[in-house]
Amino acid sequence: MKRHCIKVPKNKGEPVRRMLLELEILDNSVKIGTDGKFLYLPLTREPAPDELKVFPDKIELTESDFELHEKKPVPEDLLGFSPTYEIIGDIALLEDSDLDSQKASKIANVLLRTQPNIKTVLKPLTPVIGEFRVREFEVVAGEPRTETVHREYSCRYKVDLARAYFTPRLSTERSRILSWVMEGDTVVDMFAGVGPYSILIAKSNKPSKVVAIDKNPDAVRYLRENIILNSAKNIEAIEGDAREEAKKFAVTADHVIMNLPHNAHEFLDPAVLLTKPGGIIHYYGMAHEDDLFESFIRLIRAAAERAGRQVEVLEKRVVRSYAPHQYNVCIEARIL
Description:
By secondary structure, the chain is of the alpha/beta class. The protein has 10 helices and 17 strands. Helices cover 27% and strands 33% of the residues.
């Protein structure tokens, strides 16, 4: 396939390629050609005279034959629709628990075929249930396991999805919470799970201490593994009920993270107890679109009043859509 191109000595090729990218005239639909001594860089159009002035000497405008890039198939191409799934480590988690076995198997096989990084495809059999917030899964295709290592920012999290809750969808939110933490702060993560908030914050080296609490013994086992895996310092992993552990760390926290959106309101009294004067509670809840924040703010104020303290609401935001008309929200509240 004939294309206008720039012929350039191989040792000058990379700088010229970058310049063509900046000008947005490199044709990526075909493969860059070579004859051993020269590269042939395909163009979507010829450079204008002024544009040519910025290129090094020894380039030549010419024409050459090029091979088309082979387009890799994507799931939509093979299925005729876009499947809904999320990727955790090398596991793809199908999001529609109502898929029949035949359709789930078809989607799973296509995912394994088109995405080499996926080794296992799971289908949830239950919603998040129980005090440990876990789900049951069926292995639809691939390696028969529910354990993986998920990479996020500069961290790695080992997790068994059938034993501890984890979602990659809060990665941006976890980074946002990190931005609130200042040098020397103490952070208490009341429902730490395998550590995605706690370890990211600890690895930043900003806090003097991170206390990561969870009641699920499997989650804490992975949390401790992940602390070692990430060489995180100044972090303490505690297996226990956040209500009881709050008594041991009363009035020490600059930040209290309450990422238990369905039940966080049950732990507001110990959260207030944890928070030092001027400290901030990061409260997560599930809210209907008709009342996103005000009911939660009233609950936070009531808990503060029971402790003889006051509340300053600093920020309130929708984190993500959870279900029709339902949203995961976060409220930053300073406890005075």
